[in-house]
Amino acid sequence: MIRSARTLFVLAALFALPAHAETTLTVFISSALRPEVMRQAFDRFEAANPGVKVTAQTGGATSDLQAQYLNTVMSAKDSTLDVMLLDIIRPAQFAATGWTVPLDKAVGDRTAFLQRYLPAYAEADSVDGKLVALPAFADAMFLYYRKDLLDKYHLPVPKTWSELAKEAKTIQAGENNPDLQGVSFQGAPIEGTVCTFLLPYWSMGKTLVHDGHLTWDRDAALKSFALWTGLVKDGVAPRNVAEIVTDQTRKDFESGKAVFAVLWSYGWNLFQSPDSAVKDKVGVAELPAVDGGKPVSCIGGWQWGVSAYSKNQDEAIKLVRFLSSPEVATLLAEKASLLPVFPDLYKDPAVLQTVPWLAAALPVVETAKARPVTPRYDEVSNTIRTQTNAVLAGSETPDDAATQIEARLHRVLH
Amino acid sequence: MTAPTSGVTPSFDPSRGPTPRRKRRFLDANDAVLARVLLAPTFLLLLVIVVYPVCRLVWTSFLELSLTSGLPPRFAGLENYVSLATDPEFWTALTNTLLITLITVPAALIAGLALALVANLPFRVRWPVRLSLLIPWAIPLAFVGMIGGWFFQSDYGLVNDLLRHVRTTRIIWFNSGWLSFMAICLTITWKTSSFVALVLLAGLQTIPDELYEAASVDGAGVFRRFLSVTLPMLKPSIAVAVIFRMITSLQTFNIPVTMTRGGPGTSTVTLAMYIHQNTVDFLDLGYGSALAVVLFLVSMAVTAFYLRQVRAQP
């Protein structure tokens, strides 16, 4: 009798378990975007929400690899992922495919809610009148420079690309080190090379897309190609620039092999690490302009989206709201030099103490331009990066490349 | 034990008697049923994992189906095939794929044959030779591509380091479409010649020593023995190796993806890479399927050729 009662009790306990079972949320993040710092944010959420566990799934190191993975998982309608970290170029695609849950209901008054964020991110995440994702952290391309070398030769921080070329040549000649590159930028057929092409193009005041229509300026495109190939020809940029991926620029600058570098904000934290050859020798500035043009940067940044196939959407939305809060933004800025999406934090004394260059970063992020917003962004990107890569490698003429880009973008953007 | 069921039959002929005959037919039917039952899982599996996907692929290739359009699929007839025929990137990718096949299959065959002949020599300890043959075959393709990428990298690559002794200026392999293509072909040849060598080594070991002895007695030298004994006896193995190599080289994907990402420009994009780009990157499933159908047909043609060859052999 006692035994059967005990058995009954055990059985009852077993059946009761699922009612108290924990919800596990799986979050897809990039292996290159400081998963260990992200983990701290997840820990805080778990502490405040008993019964919810957050596990991270780290994917490819580059935006391209992550997109390939997410495209495969999401087109299979897989429910494994609950929350995804998306590059700023993706929300339009995720809205068109219906892969993320609209978050409008979760935030109440959308306009009031989005006012707290930098306008660029509020815009990027609202597609066709729907809130597709919530901003995670901001990013933009900066000019990193060797403070020590500029001081040594009494040179100012360059304001134009021609000034940069001149200063780089002076330093390269003075240092007499054949391995010292003047400037490192990205030329491999990767996403970063799209920004490489667009930086001078935008600096001339031209746009690529306006109101969803292609506004191609052939002359500006040719000048953009000419600027980069000119830097290679003059020996300021390395001859193998067509091989350079984003993290190669970071490595080259970190090991002291470049005077200037065109790179995203993640570089700062690593340049200051104990292993870095340039620790305390680095300055960050706005990117130079073309002669007679305006300085401009390429906007980056990441968003938290909730998967439309998630089985725990309510908890996932709660998590995303927490991750897109000033609290987490402060954590990411202090621990990983990831730029906040809240303008107020750029002036927060506590944050500025650990990331002093944040004050200078705000105007750059505020004026940085966005790559074309279209659900078919991957096709736009592929066209620009392959053609730019071919021009930088010298395997195609700038004229042919400009013609190709125009023809192909016409197919996508009309 | 078989016993006649009726004792009425005056003369019993086992071959004509009704009972054994009925029994035999009964057994036949049983066997056929059993065979079908036993084969059914295999057929079902093939249906699910081969026939259904292929039919689905062909069907999708007639649809306008792009996930980024947000539109439901639309029957488009041959539209995808028409745009394919006028797509210069498709033709570049197809040409690159065929060129890779034309270059790397014979190259791997020659290198593989040489390796197999070396491995077949009467070494006292055989395993180090066999192991070194196995290693390139055992390394995953993507790793080989990455290794190849490092080898030919202009700054810290091993190839340029070796060339430094004979040249003053370094070669930037990945700046030139032609050199990138050759670097990829060399890497593919390195990776695949060990597979060819393994197949040929198995073939070499089936050639009886008596043939060589007889040839020697007839006064044949080493070269003559190779031409008149080894090569003819090795023909079936060579056919197997070549066909398998051709099919895999038509599907070349991992090595160029990891070595050059198709660059510079589109000069090293293969058909499989172009399919991947259109389906996984662009989410244009209709067009991607049409491209995949083309690759499927090319592979089928090669396979059909192989099957004919196999059937023709005694």
Characterise this structure.
The complex is a heterodimer of chains A (414) and B (314). Chain A is an alpha/beta fold and 414 residues long. Chain A has two domains: 2-139 and 300-367, D-Maltodextrin-Binding Protein, domain 2; 142-296 and 376-413, 3-Layer(aba) Sandwich (D-Maltodextrin-Binding Protein, domain 2), CATH 3.40.190.10. Chain A contains 19 helices and 13 strands. Chain A has helices at residues 2-20, 35-48, 63-75, 91-97, 104-107, 110-114, 119-124, 147-152, 161-175, 191-203, 218-233, 246-254, 266-271, 313-323, 326-336, 349-354, 358-367, 377-393, 398-413, and strands spanning 23-30, 52-59, 83-87, 126-127, 130-131, 134-140, 142-146, 181-184, 209-210, 213-214, 258-263, 282-285, 299-306. Chain A has a five-stranded mixed β-sheet. In chain A, strand 4 and strand 5 (130-131) form a beta hairpin. In chain A, helix 10 (191-203) crosses helix 18. Chain B is mostly helical. Chain B folds into two domains: 23-52, no CATH class; 88-312, MetI-like (MetI-like fold). Chain B contains twelve helices and two strands. Chain B has helices at 18-60, 79-85, 88-119, 127-138, 141-152, 158-163, 177-204, 209-217, 222-250, 254-259, 271-281, 285-312, and strands at residues 63-64, 74-75. Chain B has a two-stranded antiparallel sheet. In chain B, helix 7 crosses helix 9 (222-250), helix 9 runs antiparallel to helix 12 (285-312) and helix 11 (271-281) runs antiparallel to helix 12. The two termini of chain B are 42 Å apart. Mean pLDDT of chain B is 87; it is low at 1-14. The interface between A and B is medium-sized, with 32 and 24 residues.
